[in-house]
Amino acid sequence: MTIHQLLGALLGNPIEIPAHEHTSHDKTSTGVNCGSANILSMTTQERSWMYIGLMVPILGIFLAMRYAKHQKNWNDEHVKANLGYLPSTNCKNALCRMSSRLTSSIKTVGILGGCGILLPIFLLLLPILLISVLFQLIMLPFRLCCFALLQS
After folding, report:
1. I need a labelling partner for 105 at 20 to 30 A (CA). Which of 34, 61, 97, 152 fits?
2. Considering its fold, how many domains does the chain have in total?
3. Source organism's superkingdom (predicted)?
4. Pairing relation of β-strands 29-32 and 20-23?
5. pLDDT of 47-87, one tens digit each?
6. 152, part of any domain
């Protein structure tokens, strides 16, 4: 999985997994067709505050459990419906294997954050996030003004 595909998946773009010999979690191999699916149930654009919350001590563990339950439902309803199978870490196809790791990496961040290990990163990201929100609020009147001029 390239960096471009990884960032695309985090932003909510579907991942296209080519046809390959798929090895599932129970180590059975089957041939699967090319398919495309949104692997993550919660993208960074939709839930940026939740991703920040994963890094907060204690809270991160509870958010990781909530995310795991939501992701399991998403996998059953959307990923398996679109692909016909679930990506597995046992698969020999690199894109399929990395897609599976991507979903579990968010749970890992929540557990590490809940234990307090990611607190320094959280403290660095919080001011950056606040500055970005303030910048968007300051720029809002200018964007509305320019949009009104373009409409007339």
Report:
1. 34
2. 1
3. Bacteria
4. antiparallel
5. 677 777 888 899 989 988 988 898 999 999 999 999 999 99
6. no
